[in-house]
Amino acid sequence: MTPPSHGAAAVQKRIEKTGDQALPRQALTPADNQELLRQLYLARYFDVRLIKEKKRGRLRGTLYSSHNQEAIIVGSLFGLEPTDWISPIHRDMPAFFLKDARRGWRNPERNGMSIEEVCSQVWCKATSPGRARDNWSHIGSKTKRIIHSTSMLAGTIPVACGVAYADRLNGGNAVVLTYNGEGSTAQGVFHESINFASVHKLPVITIVENNQWAYGTPVELGSPSPDIADRAKGYNIPGLIADGQDVLDVYDKVMAAVARARAGLGPSIVECKTFRAYGHGDHDDDRAAKYRPEEEVERGRSRDPIAVFKRWLVEHNQMSADEAQRFSPEGLSASEVTDDDFPPEVVQYLKEGIEFAIQAPVPPAEEGSRWVFAEGPR
Ligand SMILES: Cc1ncc(C[n+]2csc(CCOP(=O)(O)OP(=O)(O)O)c2C)c(N)n1
Ligand SMILES: [Mg+2]
């Protein structure tokens, strides 16, 4: 028997392309597509701007880059209802402010975090949801329907099952989207919770961002099968593979899973093939450059999601070739791009979030034990 191949060419071959017929993307208007592109720019700008802020000495703490994986975040969130739940992890920081962003980035009614809240979190300020206990993704909001990640890999999927079950008992019709790296799929709880979700037909969608690396461990040392989506067969549920560099393919596959979940037919796994552009976190950048072959990294970064989507827009007459050239951060690292590579409204939105965070106070030291010990009368 030939062993399954984890190689890039084989992976590319397995990304199922269904053609343009009867796909969820057909319901998207040209204005929706422009918004998708704006959100891709915004996710990328968030990433590069934080790296620049840290280099300038205005920011401390580890950064976990979502560079090159933005299409997964944007494409999976775009079709959700405001009442749907998500659980982002370290690789998905832009998801906190992109949730429900289609209803207006500055709309106070939307069920997503504001850029001010997210920047406050990164700068560890009193105005952050976590009130300075963490500078990254350990945040949630019951009202905005964002599940606080458990931090243990795959450990949020059982929580998502509980949220989905409770919503059903309360007469709701929400779906719950959990984000996981391929590294988390080797955890026992990955199996237990998806098994439970399938038995009880829970509307839980497990997104697997297969970026080929879990810290310094390559995917072939974490999974015997190159396609994590294959596991779905064992749970009798769909296992879809999306091209994680193609925002519309992610949108189509996630919306197929959402439609099924909403109809009461239960969970799905959506594996998005992608590549981690840099180190696990910025503390790992130099090491990652040594443990990953240069050609692999070059190939993995060669299909920038912004470039892939722009090409589609031009081919489908929704953007002129000149317009496509106007803002071009694709393929460039944080030190290579400037603000001129991004639409001004994207730069302005983030600038406001960052300035707000920098001006905001730190919480008083006495607050340190808050949420640790029981408070008030028992
Ligand atoms: C059970 C568990 N083991 C180890 C860790 C430490 N850890 C955090 S992220 C990470 C790598 C995750 O890789 P992957 O799931 O592929 O996600 P990626 O970082 O590539 O997006 C590790 C080992 C953890 N959080 N939980
Ligand atoms: Mg990974």
What's the arrangement of secondary structure elements?
Layout: H1 8-14, H2 30-55, H3 70-77, E1 85-87, H4 95-98, H5 115-122, H6 157-169, E2 176-181, H7 188-199, E3 204-210, E4 213-214, E5 217-218, H8 232-235, E6 239-243, H9 247-262, E7 268-273, H10 285-291, H11 294-300, H12 305-315, H13 321-326, H14 344-359
Parallel strand pairs: 1-2, 2-3, 3-7, 6-7
Antiparallel strand pairs: 4-5
Helix pairs in contact: 2-3, 2-12, 3-9, 5-14
Bound molecules: thiamine diphosphate and magnesium ion.
By DSSP (H or I, 4+ residues per run), the number of helices equals: 14
**How many domains, as an integer?**
1
Would you identify the regions where 5 or more consecutive residues have pLDDT less than 50? none
Global structural class: alpha/beta
Polypeptide structure, described:
The protein is an alpha/beta fold. The protein has one domain (28-358): Thiamin diphosphate (ThDP)-binding fold, Pyr/PP domains (Rossmann fold), CATH 3.40.50. It has 14 helices and seven strands. The strands form two sheets. Strands 1-2-3-7-6 form a five-stranded parallel beta sheet, sandwiched between helices. Helix 9 (247-262) links the parallel strand 6 (239-243) and strand 7 (268-273).
